[in-house]
Amino acid sequence: METVERYIYAVTRRLPEKARADVELELRGLIEDLLEERLQGKKASKDDVNEVLMELGNPEDLAKEYGGKPQYLIGPRLFDSYFKVLKLVGSIVLALVELVVVIKAFMAPMGIVAFIIEFLGTLFEAGIQVFVWVTLVFAGVEYFGQDDLGGSAKEWTPALLPEIPDQKRQIPMSESLVGIGLSILFLVMYIMPQRFSVIQVAGSSTTVIPIVNQEMIPRFLPLFIAFAGVTIFKEVWKLAKRVWSGEVAVVNLICNGIAIVLAYLLFANPEFWNPGFIEQVLEANVSSATGILQTLWPLVTTRFIYVIVIAYVIDALSALYRGFSIHDKGARRKLHD
Amino acid sequence: MTDEMMKEILGGLTQELRRGVVVLAVLSQLHEPQYGYSLVSKLAEMDFPIEAGTLYPLFRRLEKQGLLESLWDTNESRPRKYYRLSPMGKDVYDQLCEEWSQMVISIGNLLKSEEGEKDGNS
Hints:
The complex is a heterodimer. Chain A is mainly α. Chain A has helices at about 1-10, 15-40, 45-55, 60-65, 75-105, 110-145, 175-190, 215-240, 245-265, 275-285, 290-335. Chain B has a 3-stranded antiparallel beta sheet. Chain B is globular. The chains are: A mainly alpha, B mainly alpha.
């Protein structure tokens, strides 16, 4: 009878705790009944037991009939969202880590082979990380989540229908990726000024003249991270939304407003820039460029903030225009149709 | 299309049809308490065989929904769990029967009209 016990165990272990004892008793009774009918009082042989169990079928299927725990990691209810999030997160993260690889390669030039190895290695590693974490999160939601979780459980109305993507309203992915890339590039430049924002003077020795005030970096860094962060957040938001709408335009506007304030606190503060820049240039004696640098420097340090502000204002306005007016046009065109 | 494929499709469709009425068949026999195996034999006798592996889980599901009541009988040589219709189960069964009769009539009409057309065309 050991096989019978093993069969019962194979079924019940897949069931919720509280149903096990009951099902176990019931199943044992059933198997004994089946055996009894087959034997009519004779003693059960191993073959008889096997045949009866074969009749009952695969314990896995039986457990499924009993409504045991789902035998999948991510069910059909969540799979759609899972796949969408995986694609979105995957494309953003992979684009970003590869950008860092490229920036690193620029800062510390390496051979092409080493670069390719690093590029592919990073792609592989980051890809696995994204896959594992997104999958884990969704598996968790599947396992612990309530039945009413997930989009399909919501009451459906025609208002929930996604809009047919309009070429004009679509936010190009490249736009967001470039935005994110530039933010990270800025941040890396600021954290490593000796590597990046330098003027290297050729000759027997190389002089490094940082543009920013290196002593003040620790003080300005939190602001700078917030400045890059708000931009990255905005671009990720746009990536997630895919199309321009009033909502996206307003979020864009708020983010740009915050970015302008942060930019003002950073770039309009004279302490942000290297105070000894001109002297260092003169000292290094860059014969050909000294004159240009002397005229450019005050312009850069005082006007850079204007460039930033204008760029963000234009971006906000064009977003508002695309978010609201094209929306109306689209609606009107639909009416004409 | 080979014969085998056709048989397979037909088998699948028949099974789906049966699956829809299994609940009705089971409920119909539970005015008196039955335990799983006794009902398996009974249904087999009445030419509506159903596998024990299907029936036992179905009992539990119907009990959870409140259509069946259960009772352990420990007097006999081996303990058996008896099921019978709950008051709500009786109501549901009666209404389900009406739905079924209605469906039989509608489907019957549909099949008949199809026959008639065939006859008319030929």
